[in-house]
Design brief:
The protein has 221 residues and is α/β, with parallel strands linked by helices. The protein is built from 8 helices and 12 strands. The structure holds calcium ion. The site of calcium ion has 5 residues, from loops.
Amino acid sequence: MRVLVVEDDSLLGDALQVGLRQAGFVPDWITDGIGAEHALATTEYGAMVLDIGLPRRSGLEVLARMRAAGNRLPVLILTARDTVGDRIAGLDAGADDYLVKPFAMGELTARLRALARRSEGRSQPALQVAGVTLDPAAHTVSFEGAPIELSAKEFTLLRVFMQNAGRVLSRAQLEEQLYGWDDETGSNTVEVFIHHLRRKFGRDLIRTVRGVGYLMPRESA
Ligand code: CA
């Protein structure tokens, strides 16, 4: 899941990027409120981690403006200790959750998974489609009960297909979910990862829709 991180503290921003990557998220890091709005306008995210005290436009303003514009992206705000007023204002402005600094990275990633689960309307932590079970927290995948080993990118790509089962996804949409701004993207890499997934799960897991993109059917063939 691609996550927008908005944090002006460089040490914390760095740590957030590293921690999110390790937990299988694809983070983009922005250090001010105006930059955050540009990123939201141009990239499709699954969640945002938003600091309140930011240069150029505060986190609260960014949040209030995006909610006023109808953007329902799950948002977790980061607030300083002893600022209960910020927390209340953040929740009232449309935040879905908050963490008080300093926080444990494991708690942040668990809360993001919970937000993603809620926004996808799932009550169970694991995704299940066409015989494939993917557990985002444990980072495990099984196919018809047997565990399958996947690389980090294969896991991310499979998760995107499972979240969108029954929908055709273009190569550009897949690339957007697979790579953050700082990632190197080679040509044909989406095709290569799809090839790997088909080798591990069988050819019918992901169908090619000529001229349009790729589709994971809801039911196995
Ligand atoms: Ca700050």
